[in-house]
Amino acid sequence: xxxxxxxxxxxxxxxxxxxxxxxxxxxxxxxxxxxxxxxxxxxxxxxxxxxxxxxxxxxxxxxxxxxxxxxxxxxxxxxxxxxxxxxxxxxxxxxxxxxxxxxxxxxxxxxxxxxxxxxxxxxxxxxxxxxxxxxxxxxxxxxxxxxxxxxxxxxxxxxxxxxxxxxxxxxxxxxxxxxxxxxxxxxxxxxxxxxxxxxxxxxxxxxxxxxxxxxxxxxxxxxxxxxxxxxxxxxxxxxxxxxxxxxxxxxxxxxxxxxxxxxxxxxxxxxxxxxxxxxxxxxxxxxxxxxxxxxxxxxxxxxxxxxxxxxxxxxxxxxxxxxxxxxxxxxxxxxxxxxxxxxxxxxxxxxxxxxxxxxxxxxxxxxxxx
Length: 370
Fold this sequence. Notes:
Strand content: 5-15%
Distance between the termini: 29 Å
Shape: elongated
Number of domains: 2
Order of helices and strands: HHEHEEEHEHEHEHHHHHHHH
CATH superfamily of the largest domain: P-loop containing nucleotide triphosphate hydrolases
Oligomer: single chain
């Protein structure tokens, strides 16, 4: 079984993975932004990605008649933003935008300037989206809140909450932010309530909390991993996407993971070969190899069950493939970091990192398990 796992993860010839990667790109976890022109949608994307050059027309690409998309990162994207245009048009139909969003964990972000109570175009669009019953998560972002004094701000925020709840229902999540402030007291730069914004976004789209670079780190190893984490997430997304294509996962998941390990080893200055691979898998323990092979095969068999396997089985397989790929990538980076320094790592520590990261990856995959 151990030799079979080595063949799985380090194949002599990688199959063509273009199909899985194209599928992934079409089904990236998506934040759908709704808001009037000037509400602060571009500033919102800048705040989340840390890319101050983002604006409509720079990095955005048309994807429907009424929407523009921005993939992040631009190379090996992990997620994307969908910005709906022309909300003031009476005949706006969200059907095409809903179809474009795809199936992987998606959420709706409504951006309203706190001092602009006239939101009829946004509310009309929300009514149509609500009728489709495809979007589960909504976050209301109150923008430019520092432009009002505290008394007015509280009243304005509550007014907009009431407007949206009338359409969407009670109990929605909201956050008050300002993208233009001189407060440099934290790593958010000039965004008021940045940490709260990220927390709320992570609750509705978990991958965001993992891809944000400006995190605090207790060790240099963690800081180094933060620099390559988006790449690990991209490979995990490719592996998950391949499980949603019938008959592909059994071949492509190990091949994708092999490419990931090879790339990560190079970035850590470690020569990738069979000896290093054997050492890496050895630190994860013999039970890892056995469980890996059994789980991979079982997930693919479940997918072959008519109807059930093509829906529930495929989604469960995608969540697990995302988790195992992220877990393997995280553990590998820990191993490569210490190997580059000539330091030994313990099986106990490696297994702990893998198991915790697998769980974290599954939660962030955007796929619900049944």
